[in-house]
Each structure stands twice: as C-alpha cells, then as structure tokens.
C-alpha cells in the first residue's frame, strides 16, 4: 500500500510513520524540514514542501492509496487552510480514504448533544482556538465525498503502547481522561484496513 503521511515529525505522526514502514508499506511524507526525518528506508520518500502550498500537496498525493494526517494547529490556521487543498488533490487523484488526528473537543457533548464538547461545560480548555481549527476540518471532511475518519483523543501524554483502550463513535468514552500518543497512533493506523468508522469522529480514551 502507498501511504501519504502529513505531520510525520510530530508526536503522533512519527509513530504512524514507524508503524507503516515496519509493515512494509511504501510511505511518502511531506515536510518543511527534511532533516527532521531521522530514518533511512528504501520505501520512504521525503518531499520537502508545505501543506498550504497546492503544488506541494498535489505532488505528495500522486500515487497514494490512503492519507494519514497528524497535523496539529500550532496556533495557526494551517489545518483549515490545508484541508481544502488536500481534499481537492485526493479527489483529483481518486484517493478516497483519509484518517486524521483531531481533538476530543469536536466530539458531541454528552450533557448537551446540540453542542460539541469544546462549546460546552465538558471542556476544561481555557482556549478554544485549536478546537475551532479542528471543527473547521471536521466540517470540510463531512461535506466532502471522501471516506474519512477523525480520531479524537482527549488529554494526550507521551507513554508506551498499552493496547487496551475504549473507542466510541461521535462521543468521548464515559469518564475518559487520557490516552497515550502511542495508543492513539496505533488506533489511527489500524483504521487503514478498518471500515467501522468511515465518515465518523471517534472518541478514544482509557
């Protein structure tokens, strides 16, 4: 399988990259700084570029079967700016499957189902900027024809892969308080061959 990974130098993205190469997939990464990719593998193609540059996105998606995106907000509008370009490039290339890493803030509120968690009293975050960016991405994907899945972790500490966690469609598992980077990446990676959560947000927590 040919996999395009965006955000491959981040905490979740670097684990996605490791899993894909471990399993023998051909992997393309689009990065601003290639020196941050500290591995050599004959099945790895590194493209230097920016996700908010249309030409770079088009180059990166050529020949891909599936897209994994672990881009984060970094206090910018990179997420919402890049997603329309990515959706267009995927549709032009005939790629249907995309799995992205979101945030628990864009899941449905249990206490007020008319709201998302970041809009309700369930959210403990003082700033909603990141959640608003992820919300825009969710809406863009939801309006597209792609087979998307947004994996939505709550508090995301580093840690070893436990492998024993709970997932739930559209809401955060009851009393979910944390999920490690490793387990979040493992679940997101597993969605490449799993169709249970197509066109869904997925809450994930221990």
Structural summary, described in words:
- The chain has one domain: NAD(P)-binding Rossmann-like Domain (Rossmann fold), CATH 3.40.50.720.
- It contains five helices and eight strands, in the order βαββαβαβαββαβ.
- It is an alpha/beta fold and 206 residues long.
- Helix 1 packs across helix 5 and helix 3 runs parallel beside helix 4.
- The chain starts with a strand and ends with a strand.
- The relative contact order is 0.15.
- It has an eight-stranded mixed beta sheet with strand order 3-2-1-4-5-6-8-7, sandwiched between helices.
- The protein is globular.
- The model has no long low-confidence stretch (mean pLDDT 95).
Short descriptors:
Rossmann fold; alpha/beta; 30% helix; globular; eight-stranded mixed β-sheet; 206 residues
């Amino acid at each position: 399988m040919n996999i395009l990974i965006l955000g491959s130098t981040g905490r979740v993205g670097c684990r996605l990259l490791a899993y894909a190469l471990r399993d023998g997939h051909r992997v393309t990464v689009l990065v601003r700084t290639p020196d941050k990719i500290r591995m050599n593998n004959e099945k790895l193609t590194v493209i230097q570029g920016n996700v908010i540059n249309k030409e770079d996105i088009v180059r990166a998606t050529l020949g891909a079967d599936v897209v994994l995106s672990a881009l984060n907000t970094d206090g910018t509008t990179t997420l919402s700016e890049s997603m329309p370009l990515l959706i267009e490039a995927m549709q032009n290339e005939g790629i249907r499957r995309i799995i992205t890493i979101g945030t628990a803030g864009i899941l449905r509120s249990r206490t007020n189902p008319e709201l998302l968690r970041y809009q309700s009293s369930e959210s403990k975050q003082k700033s909603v900027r990141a959640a608003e960016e992820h919300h825009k991405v969710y809406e863009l994907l939801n309006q597209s024809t792609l087979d998307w899945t947004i994996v939505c972790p709550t508090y995301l500490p580093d840690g070893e892969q436990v492998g024993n966690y709970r997932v739930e469609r559209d809401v955060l598992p009851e009393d979910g308080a944390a999920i490690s980077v490793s387990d979040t990446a493992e679940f997101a990676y597993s969605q490449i061959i799993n169709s249970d959560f197509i066109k869904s947000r997925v809450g994930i927590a221990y």
